[in-house]
Structures are given as C-alpha cells and as structure tokens.
Amino acid sequence: MRVAVVGGGVVGLSTTAALLQRGVDVVCYEQAGEPMAQRSAGSSRIFRLAHALPDLVRLAAVARAGFGRWESASRTSLIGRSGCVISGEQMPVWAAAMAAAGAAHEVVDGASDGLRLPARTPPSEALLDPVGGVIDVDAVRAHLTELTRGAVLRAQAYALEDSRGGATVWSSAGEARFDAVLLAAGAGTSPLAAQVGIYTPPALAHHVRFTFPFDSPVAWQCWIDTPSTDLGTYQHQTGPGSWAVGGHLDPALTAWEVGREAATTASRDAVLAYARRHLAVEPRIVDSLYCVTTPDLGDGFEFRRNGPILAVYGENLFKFAPLLGDVLAAACVDGSTPAVPDVALNY
Description:
Blueprint: E1 2-6, H1 10-21, E2 25-30, E3 44-47, H2 54-74, E4 84-88, H3 91-101, E5 106-109, E6 125-129, E7 133-136, H4 137-147, E8 152-154, E9 157-163, E10 166-171, E11 174-178, E12 180-183, H5 189-195, E13 205-213, E14 222-226, E15 232-239, E16 242-248, H6 251-254, H7 260-278, E17 287-293, E18 300-306, E19 309-315, H8 321-334, H9 340-346
Parallel strand pairs: 1-2, 1-12, 2-8, 4-14, 12-19
Antiparallel strand pairs: 3-7, 4-6, 5-6, 9-10, 10-11, 13-16, 13-17, 14-15, 15-16, 18-19
C-alpha cells in the first residue's frame, strides 16, 4: 500500500511515523523548509486532560500515554509536570467533564495553596489539572523527524484527484499516484479538500502569542482563563524567565480580512494591557509567535472522507498527536472514517 500525507505538522508527522511502523510505503509532503515549522511552531505548548467533553478528556489521557511511549523511545522528557489551571466561565463545565471521565482533578478557591499563578489577584475559583504541563515542542519535533527520516518530501502539494482505485497528488515535485491520501495541512487543508468534494471550514484568522520576562522563585502552572468581563487567555512558561500569553480577542479584530499587521497590533495592545493590569511579569514583550488559525472550531478534532482521501481538522491538536497518528494511520489503511465517540470507545 502507498499513502500520501499532505502536511508535515505534528499530526502529519505522527501519522507518517505510525504508517511507517505498519510497514506502509508513505510520502509526507511538507511545503515549509522544515517539518513542524508552521502551526506546530514554537518552543512549547500546553498539554492538559481538561476539556469540555468527557470523551476528549479520555482521549487526552490516551494521548498522554502515547507521549510517554515517545519519551521512553527518545529518552527525553516531552511534557513538564507543572500542572494546569482552568478558571472563568468554562471552568464548571470542564470540571464536570473531568469528573465524568474519572480524571484526577480538584476545584479550589482563590486562597488555595494549590494555585501557583502569576496573577496579581487569583481567580475566585479554579480547576486544577495535575497531569497538565508544558510540551517541549522542539523535543517532539526532533523525535518525529528522526522517526520519519526519508519519508518527508519538501514539496508543495497543490492539486488532488480521486482517480480509479486511488488518488493522484500533483506537487512541485511532480505527479504521483497513491492508494490513499491524508490531508493534515492545517490552514492548507480546506482548499485541497474542496478539490475532491470534502468540506472543511475555510475561514482563517490571525493569532499571535507574546512572551514577557519574569523573575519568580515559584514554578508557575499553565493557565487557561475565560473571564466574562476581560480578555480570555492561555498562559505558560516557554523557558527560564519567559512567560507566554495568548489572548482571545474579538474575532473582528483578528479576521483574515483585517490583515496580519493590524491583527498583530490589536493583539499586542490587548495582551500588553492585560499583562500590565493582571500579571506579575515585567510588562515588556520580548518575543512573539504568529500563526494562522481556523476560528470557531472549538476544542477537539473532526474527520471527513471522500473515497480514498481523508481530511482531519481541528484546533489544539498538538496534545492529541500520538493518538491521532495511530487513529489516522489505521484509517488510511482500512478506509474507515473515524469519529470522536467511536475513537473514545475503542481506545
């Protein structure tokens, strides 16, 4: 069997590695200079079990076990043990989902010793996810790059065709025929999927994460905050003395039509103002990370298929990467279309 994986982000590389382990002849197309250089970029990401749905909590736990296998194979720590805090409007729903899934968690008040946050005023109530922590993106990239060595083709896939008994991929490296194709190209998935009759959300938005310096003897936890009257944020440490903050702005300020420069300026102003008001960090931006997102997807992932071509899309997929690699590799081989409830039941 011959499979094409379009997209060399963390999901594409995870699937390529899983296919290689199954003995499948696989080519991973990546248009960037290096794998995991676009949506998967950045030195760190948040891992968490906490989600709004019990199925996603259970699948995050499966993914954490997968990261553990990668850690054993690479002999490298991939996820820190700082823990993750969730506060704000979403907290009660996430806490209920954790309870329904049987995941370890605790709901505490703002005076709890269990909170280690850079907040000038702690949240009145918060959910503690003890399994949460910071993913070492660079270490994951190194591991997956080694596993997929020789299977990644630096070429842009620009056209697909569902042809008899398989599919054809046209790329900057030429034309090639495959038995199955996986589309895992992030922002590039929708235009390619549309060529073969698969709908995935086409809207795009700009997003920027900003890093601030800090000096604290306390190891802070990752933090996801969704207040009703202020900026929603996700926050985590990106290295010694570096604290990253991403803000969830009014969609009108970061829509694709606004342009990268205007969206970046709006994001910078909002996050900097938030840091000055609420955080015990030096209110000085020392780094930023830009990426393109698909708005309104929420947490989790979805799958769509037409014949031999399967597409995957979603937000915050990095933390599910080991699980998604296995699920997508199996679907490429057997021609199935996964669904989140079925995956949660079978894993």
